[in-house]
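thread: overnight batch results

M.L. [08:02]
morning all. the overnight job finished for the chain we discussed friday. pasting input first so we're all looking at the same thing
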Amino acid sequence: GRTLYTLTSPNAFRYYINELKPVRVPTLLVRQTGEAWNRPFIAVYEPYGNGISSSVSLVRMMTGVPSAGDFAGIAVVRTNGIDYILNATDTTATNNYENVTFKGIMG
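M.L. [08:03]
and the structure it wrote out:
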């Protein structure tokens, strides 16, 4: 199962939009037990507001990734490109999807 927590984090000093760096960020923390080891999950959070528009237009699973296994990958389509968020529980396996090759835990 999953447990959800809401909290306010310290300011987002690493965020790439300067206007948002000093803002305290509402945060969602998700803790998953059990099936998380067999099917890792990924969440996308993009702070925006106060005159700043969202740059994310679509979040989708990467094409060809099995629904169960030790790898999860999503494509985050933004106004200026695509970001891939990758997670694997087997650090020795090489994963190839959508012309992206990945070996590791988080990328």
